């Protein structure tokens, strides 16, 4: 009888660490790559006086790709984490118009996007994590207008906030995949370089900004 009791205790002690590891697979340091689609446009507060056709033309669309890093903690039934991300966008919009007989060509491009925030999720299944996220984001926008003999270029950074939700699925002992939607709102414009156009200077520039960004991305990552 002692032999059976001893064997059961040994098996139980050996299985306990493995069970604990399986119960919290979404913890620790992680690194990932992301890719997807996004669009950037004026927010609802900026729509007054603009018809729908003009509003649609102001949307910039393109591919999104980048890298992220994070660290997750086990909270029992929940998983909490901190994360950061660097991404780029291929979004670009070009237009041509004639004003007072002078042809103008304009181009606006979305550049790098930075994000720092946190997330909170729960295990919908032993290998599936459903989570929400929120944090700070900053993006760059480059604009260029050429007409006649003049060319005007602008490189600016815009601060904002981001919220999102996603599903993360284990693909192996250390690998995972995810699908994520996120919404960002940018409302604080900061010029990276001062410019001077006669009586108009960048430090005198004061306007309300309301830009919405919608992104849908997929990611592949690894835990360490």
Task: Using the CA coordinates, give the radius of gyration.
Answer: 24 Å
The tally of beta strands, per DSSP, is 11
Calculate the mean pLDDT score and round it: 77
Structural class: mainly beta
Spatial sequence of strands, sheet with the most strands:
1-2-3-5-6-7-8-11
Principal-axis shape? elongated
Elements, N to C (H/E):
HEHEEEEEEEEEE
> Uncertain regions: pLDDT < 50 for 5+ in a row?
4-22, 45-56, 192-200
Number of helices: 2
Main sheet attributes: strand count, strand direction, barrel closure? 8 strands, antiparallel, barrel
Looking at how many chains there are and whether they match, the oligomeric state comes to single chain
Strand % is over 45%
Distance between the termini: 43 Å
Please estimate the helix content: 10-25%
Give an overview in words.
The chain is mainly β and 224 residues long. 12% of the residues lie in helices and 67% in strands. Strand 4 and strand 5 form a beta hairpin. The two termini are 43 Å apart. About 18% of the residues have low confidence.
Summarize the structure.
This protein is mainly beta. It has helices at residues 2-23, 52-57; strands spanning 28-42, 60-74, 78-89, 92-99, 102-125, 128-147, 150-170, 175-191, 196-197, 200-201, 211-223. The strands form two sheets. An eight-stranded antiparallel β-barrel has the order 1-2-3-5-6-7-8-11.
Task: Record keyword descriptors for this entry.
224 residues; mainly beta; 8-stranded antiparallel β-barrel; two-stranded antiparallel sheet; 67% strand; elongated
What's the helix and strand layout?
Elements: H1 2-23, E1 28-42, H2 52-57, E2 60-74, E3 78-89, E4 92-99, E5 102-125, E6 128-147, E7 150-170, E8 175-191, E9 196-197, E10 200-201, E11 211-223
């Amino acid at each position: 009888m002692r032999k059976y009791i001893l064997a059961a205790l040994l098996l139980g002690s050996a299985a306990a660490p493995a069970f604990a590891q399986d119960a919290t697979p979404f913890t620790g340091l992680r690194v990932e790559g992301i890719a997807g689609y996004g669009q950037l446009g004026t927010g609802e507060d900026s729509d007054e006086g603009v018809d729908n056709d003009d509003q649609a033309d102001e949307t910039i669309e393109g591919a999104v790709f980048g890298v992220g890093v994070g660290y997750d903690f086990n909270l029992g039934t929940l998983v909490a984490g901190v994360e950061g991300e660097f991404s780029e966008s291929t979004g670009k919009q070009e237009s041509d118009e004639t004003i007072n007989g002078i042809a103008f060509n304009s181009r606006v491009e979305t550049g790098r996007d930075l994000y720092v925030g946190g997330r909170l999720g729960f295990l919908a299944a032993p290998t599936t994590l459903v989570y929400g996220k929120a944090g700070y984001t900053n993006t760059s926008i480059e604009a260029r207008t050429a007409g006649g003999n003049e060319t005007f270029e602008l490189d600016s950074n815009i601060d904002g906030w981001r919220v999102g939700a996603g599903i993360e699925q284990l693909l192996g002992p250390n690998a995972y995949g995810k699908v994520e939607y996120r919404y960002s709102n940018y409302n604080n414009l900061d010029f990276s370089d001062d410019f001077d156009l006669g009586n108009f200077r960048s430090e005198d520039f004061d306007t309300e900004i309301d830009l919405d960004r919608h992104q849908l991305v997929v990611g592949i990552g690894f835990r360490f």
